[in-house]
User: Fold this.
Amino acid sequence: MADRNPPAKPIRTPLGGEDGVDLSIIELFFFAYRDFTSDPDQILEAYGFGRAHHRVLHFVNRKPGLTVAELLDVLQITKQSLARVLKQLIDAGYIIQVPGPRDRRQRELYPTQKGRQLALDLARPQSRRIDAALKSIKDGERATVEDFLKAMVNAELRPQIDQLAVGQQDSNEGEG
Assistant:
């Protein structure tokens, strides 16, 4: 049976801003994300970990006691994906899983000192990159940057941002 579709022809013109697509901002996000993740990626590679491990470590360190169900909701990944990553982090001693105080079936996640240190090691180069970028903007524009980034999050998921900020501490008190 003969192929009814004619052979595809290459398009030789670059994609432009058709239909109001803001390609320049999209590209800036691609480049910013590439560079924002490059330093932690190098650190993670030495441990045999990837970006999923980084995200789990980050959120467990931001909200110790986060349940597996809450983490699944924040990361928007499957139980299967989380189970593999979480098992590796637990087996390697970066996270501890504790039964919930009210419901023993619920599992709360806590970083170990080793997990806290790795989370900080991963966050430091990203923080330096953010600080350098924020120094390039005028005073008071940080709020605009934060508002823009929050607006990029799906509206129904934005409350997660505030829930994580509740556990934010400016000092290292509460470690242990």
Notes: The CA atoms of residues 64 and 110 lie 5 Å apart.
